[in-house]
Amino acid sequence: RVLFRSTLTWTGRLSSEDPNIQNWPKRRHKEVRRQIVPPPGCLILSCDYGQLEARVIQWASGDKNLLKEFTEKQKYDLHWRWLYRLLEVYPPYMNHLALASGENKEDQILKAGRTIIKTDFVFASFYGSQSEAVASVSGIPVEIVKKLHEEFWAEYADVLRWQKEVFKFYQDNGFIKTLTNYKRDGVVPGNEPVNNFCQGTAAFVVAEARNSIKEKAFAENDLALLPRWDIHDDLSYLIPDSSDSEQYIKTITEEMVIPRFNFITCPLLVEASVGYNWCDLEEVCKVEGGYYKDGKLV
Description:
This protein is an alpha+beta fold. It is built from ten helices and eleven strands. A hairpin with a 5-residue loop joins strand 4 (about 175) and strand 5.
């Protein structure tokens, strides 16, 4: 049994306790997740929003280059892109990734590296960390970070403008307001104004999808459509291990990518994975939704 609470976090995200499975490792020591198994005759279905907070940043900033990355036929994964760029200009970073991840195979080191660079460089930069702070956390020489930051902000100039606007709004008004008009008052140190803006908006997107699927579960009297746990941007289900599994995956993922707010100006993406325990899940599909362009749904 896991207890979820909806009122204890500043951003509107769910929190959990007894145990707090939201803090269970996903990379190093992920084997602890193997003890979570479905009932007989069921599969675990994990539906994870892809790059959700980066998409929130695009919605808020209107950044045209980010929009291209999420909508053009040749789509890019933002975090893979900057990981490969960093390794290009600073190859020794691979040793840092191996040590931090505990992996020894190149493909697994890189897979873990995507998560590490996402936190240490991409989102640290989006949220307002300066080059010296990124270098301190990531172990990358500061001159390399400065070089990357020059490229990064030349690429995402609209994001930098928006970031400064978020900090100024907080300084002028003393509160943070998300795209869904959720407000947080009080002292918000460091980069938290931008962090709270993004996580708060993302939390409402996830909550709306979760509630819609819950309504469908009650209407159809089908408990397999009830999300069993929520790990930030990831909703997980227990679905029948039968010929019906594909239909459940289709129903849930298509519901999750519906753009329920008109500020969604690039598509939502959900990555679905299934398995017989929470550690060894295999990706089965990616599903993308529509989005609003010039006020119209496309």
